[in-house]
Design a protein that fits this description.
CATH class of the largest domain: Alpha Beta
Strand order of the largest sheet: 4-3-6-5
Shape: elongated
Number of strands: 6
Order of helices and strands: HEEHHHHEHHEHEEH
Radius of gyration: 31 Å
Structural class: alpha+beta
Strand content: 5-15%
Largest sheet: 4 strands, antiparallel
CATH topology of the largest domain: Chitinase A, domain 3
């Protein structure tokens, strides 16, 4: 990012755009023979088998890094858990009421998370993704972009000198590499790429968007110094292709589905507060 850029965070619909679920289900039957064969043993800890699928769960615990690049770490992590769990079992930690409460709490929490994950994925179908993409594209107003170069200088006199040299035919890119105080763009000939108006500080954007293609600006002052600007291209900002944003759209649809599911479940459940006195109905006013 160059020194003349103004950081903005704009979230739009277009841009916005794990354990198994148990509870009486015989989940083993859903796996194919090939899947079972792939879940091969990878280690033993005092006779306890660690399977390939266990590594994926361990990777989630440790931040979701790639399994293949962290196999030794993951196996060590699972080994520590196995040894600690065995020591806790020998110490009868699992027999305490406190542990049983924690176990039940985590069982419920895991069931809820898996239920929301499984059900939410049903909302992110290819058809739903395409529909939201099309609706969003239609609602987006056309937005202008400029591709410009600039040379950032410390004083107005230096900027005027550069304008004069450019007027005599010197190469903009060479002067930018030689003189620009902007480390982000100086070594690329001052090229800032395409940008929309709000991405730059106001003084810079106002000058750049008024210039015709190929034209040079007079010295422009901003909080960063003095700029000499050249506009290379102007265009209407292209709409991102569906393939480029479908993952973000799927995530949006899944998050929305999860919110809708929770709200629907809340509407069906009566919560009784036993830690507060029962509220009596207030008499109706005449």
């Amino acid at each position: 990012m160059t020194v003349c850029c103004r950081s903005t965070q704009r979230t739009t619909r277009g841009a916005v755009l794990s354990a198994a679920l148990v509870g009486g289900l015989a989940i083993v039957s859903v796996f194919s023979v090939a899947a079972r064969a792939a879940d091969k043993p990878v280690a033993k800890v005092d006779g306890l088998m660690i399977l390939e699928s266990d590594l994926a769960l361990a990777a989630e615990d440790l931040g979701g890094g790639p399994v293949e690049q962290n196999r030794d770490q993951l196996i060590g992590y699972l080994g520590d858990i196995a040894m600690g769990a065995k020591a806790a079992t020998d110490a009868k930690i699992g027999d305490s009421e406190e542990f049983k409460r924690k176990l039940e709490h985590n069982r419920r929490k895991l069931l809820m998370e898996e239920y929301l994950t499984v059900e939410a994925k049903k909302a992110a179908t290819p058809e739903a993704i395409k529909k939201l993409y099309d609706e969003t594209v239609k609602s987006l107003p056309p937005e202008q972009e400029v591709r410009a170069r600039h040379i950032l200088l410390a004083s107005e006199d230096e900027a005027k000198s550069v304008v004069a040299r450019l007027g005599k035919g010197e190469d903009f890119a060479k002067l930018a590499a030689e003189l620009s105080k902007d480390p982000g763009s100086g070594q690329t000939g001052g090229d800032l790429g395409f940008f929309t108006k709000e991405r730059m500080v106001p003084e810079f954007s106002e000058a750049a968007f008024k210039l015709e293609v190929g034209a040079l600006s007079a010295p422009v002052k901003s909080q960063f110094g003095w700029h000499v600007i050249k506009v290379d291209e102007k265009r209407t900002k292209p709409v991102p292709a569906l393939d480029d944003v479908k993952d973000q759209i799927a995530q949006y649809l899944e998050r929305k589905a999860q919110q809708d599911i929770v709200l629907a479940l809340r509407a069906k459940v009566k919560i009784e507060r036993l830690d507060q006195p029962e509220k009596k109905d207030e008499p109706k006013k005449p």
